[in-house]
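re: the backbone from monday

yeah here it is again, tokenized this time
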């Protein structure tokens, strides 16, 4: 199964997760706290690998989840119902169904959403920087990510939760294990999100010291930050 996570900060978690499964051990944790992941790569999960769903069958998956599996977050945001919203999908997995149920139950938008938001903000910096963001934007970059990761974003809505059960194949094509994937759909009004991030940028700009070239790069970024966000 192909997975591309949108921030390097999750690399250690991903390595640990798959190392356990590769050794035939269960990647279980009582109530996962730091396991919130966001996947944006289209064609993330082949439906042929799904063996069970919360809704009863692959054909009855929620529209938003099917769009996510086929096209990533962008596919969900193209649905009419989410036309004026930013969509964030929290993903977690384990062989332990009870652990995943607890994770979904204890998911809190005022805490867990900040991880997803800061991940998308950080990705935007990397996509626009011609150099490393640390060099191009200086302390502005580091401070924005730090603030974004601890901020309390207004108007976050936990829309839905759904799970599927996947099978994983060994190198010879035989089934090696089965595990659950839980998806939590959260949304935020686009205007509210943009206003919040712009205000955060204004505050950080006033707090940090930047060179003339870094200031110019920051100003360019602020003008186009939400294009493709």
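seq for it, each position gets an aa:
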């Amino acid at each position: 199964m192909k997975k591309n996570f949108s921030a390097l900060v999750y690399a250690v978690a991903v390595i640990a997760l798959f190392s356990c499964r590769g050794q035939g051990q269960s990647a279980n944790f009582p109530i996962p706290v730091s396991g919130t992941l966001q996947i944006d790569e289209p064609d993330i999960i082949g439906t042929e690998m799904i063996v069970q769903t919360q809704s009863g069958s692959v054909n009855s998956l929620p529209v938003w989840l099917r769009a996510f599996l086929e096209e990533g977050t962008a596919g969900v945001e193209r649905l009419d119902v989410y036309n004026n919203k930013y969509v964030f999908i929290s993903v977690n997995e384990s062989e332990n169904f009870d652990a995943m149920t607890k994770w979904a139950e204890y998911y809190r938008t005022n805490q867990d959403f900040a991880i997803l938001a800061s991940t998308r903000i950080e990705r935007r910096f990397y996509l626009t920087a011609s150099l490393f963001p640390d060099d191009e934007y200086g302390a502005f970059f580091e401070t924005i990510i730090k603030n974004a990761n601890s901020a309390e974003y207004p108007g976050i809505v936990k829309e839905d939760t759904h799970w599927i059960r996947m099978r994983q194949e060994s190198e010879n094509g035989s089934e090696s294990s089965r595990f659950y994937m839980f998806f939590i759909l959260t949304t935020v009004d686009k205007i509210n999100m943009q206003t919040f991030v712009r205000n955060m940028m204004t505050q950080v700009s006033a707090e940090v010291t930047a060179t003339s070239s870094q200031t110019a790069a920051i100003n360019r970024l602020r003008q186009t930050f939400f294009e493709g966000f």
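Residues 114 and 149 are 5 Å apart (CA to CA). Residues 8-224 form one domain.
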